[in-house]
Amino acid sequence: MDTGNNIVELISKYPIDKYLIKYLAKPSPIILEKLPNGLEIEGTSEETSCKLNGILHKTILKRAVQLALASKTIFNNKGNSGE
User: Fold this and answer.
1) Cα angle: 31, vertex 32, 37; to 5 degrees
2) Continuous segment of H or E residues that includes residue 42
3) SS3 state of residue 39
4) Which of 28, 63, 64, 71 has an alpha carbon within 20 to 30 A of 53's alpha carbon?
């Protein structure tokens, strides 16, 4: 039960001797270098590092590559279809 102020209470009819904590949060953008020409991502243009646990970096990178490849494929297909 979320009691607010970043406190969550575990309630169970069974004894709790161990538990796994997972949470969701919207991460801040990861910007590898200062963005040029007034470009911004969520109001930020300066270089920022990933604030998430390092164990997630490989998963984030794989997803970024997937999205980039999908974006390129869509862009190339639109260019070839005469639109």
Assistant:
1) 70
2) none
3) coil
4) 71
With tokens 């169970």, the residue in question is: 12
Name, in order, each residue with C-beta under 8 angstroms of 44's C-beta and a sequence gap of 6 or more: 28, 29, 31
Pairing mode of beta strands 2-4, 7-8: antiparallel
- Which amino acid is residue 22, in one-letter code? K
Rounded to an integer, the average pLDDT of 67-73 is 86
With H, G, I as helix, E, B as strand and everything else as coil, classify residue 3: strand
Task: Check: CB of residue 50 under 8 Å from CB of residue 31.
Answer: no
Give the residue from 36, 61, 54 showing the smallest Cα distance to 46.
Answer: 36
In tens, the pLDDT along 5-63 reads: 878 888 888 888 888 877 777 888 888 899 999 999 999 999 998 888 888 888 988 99
Non-local CB neighbours of 8 within 8 Å, separated by 6+ positions: 1, 2
